[in-house]
């Protein structure tokens, strides 16, 4: 049964890669699940330490793999194609998203550092709270605004190229 679920997940991932804007939204939902995990794990560091540490590791694994790919999808494939099609104010919005990515990366590095000293559970909670707050606002903004810009401005040929790049990023052997 687990194999069938894993196969279905792979098939739906491939199919969503054919529609890159849908894939970005679906990835946002998966990231939000990891943000929830980080919050729960931080809250339980004192009472259920081993389980909390496992939850952190699981969330970190996702963010270090799929999360990195997601950011590359946006910064390498979507933003550069979208930027020349936007008005100046809209381009500054893209710059804000890139700034959010850099800030999230910095906070994430802090989180991994303080996590490596889990006797600082208060500090871990504080860094998790900052990371989660930034990322949730960022995702909300992208879902509301970036998706609209992309749907309005990106033509089918650009979406096909983005899809191909996203697939190649996940399976370089087929590129």
Descriptive report:
With 175 residues, this protein is mostly helical. The protein is built from 6 helices and no strands. Helix 2 runs antiparallel to helix 3 and helix 3 (49-82) runs antiparallel to helix 6 (156-170). The longest helix is centred in the middle third of the chain and has 34 residues, at 49-82. It is elongated. The protein starts with a helix and ends in a 5-residue tail after the last helix.
What distinguishing features does this structure have?
single chain; 175 residues; disordered N terminus; elongated; 0% strand
Can you describe this structure in just a few lines?
The chain is mainly α and 175 residues long.
Topology:
Layout: H1 2-17, H2 20-43, H3 49-82, H4 88-115, H5 121-153, H6 156-170
Topology, number of strands: 0
Q: Bin the strand percentage.
A: under 5%
**Structural class by SSE content:** mainly alpha
What's the helix-strand series? Answer: HHHHHH
End-to-end Cα distance: 31 Å
How much helix, percentage-wise, in residues?
Answer: over 70%
The Rg value, from CA coordinates, equals 18 Å
Nearest-integer average pLDDT: 89
Total number of helical segments?
Answer: 6
């Amino acid at each position: 049964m687990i194999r069938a679920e894993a196969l279905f997940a792979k098939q739906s991932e491939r199919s969503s890669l054919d529609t890159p804007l849908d894939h970005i939204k679906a990835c946002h939902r998966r990231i939000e699940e990891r943000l929830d995990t980080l919050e729960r794990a931080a809250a339980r560091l004192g009472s259920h330490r081993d389980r909390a540490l496992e939850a952190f590791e699981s969330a970190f694994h996702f963010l270090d793999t799929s999360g990195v790919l997601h950011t590359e999808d946006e910064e390498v494939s979507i933003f550069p194609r979208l930027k020349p099609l936007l008005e100046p104010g809209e381009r500054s919005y893209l710059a804000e998203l890139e700034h959010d990515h850099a800030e999230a990366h910095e906070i994430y590095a802090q989180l991994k550092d303080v996590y490596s000293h889990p006797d600082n559970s208060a500090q871990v909670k504080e860094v998790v709270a900052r990371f989660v707050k930034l990322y949730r606002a960022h995702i909300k903004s992208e879902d509301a605004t970036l998706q609209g810009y992309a749907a309005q401005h990106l033509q089918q040929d650009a979406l096909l190229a983005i899809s191909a790049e996203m697939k190649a990023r996940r399976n370089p052997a087929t590129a």
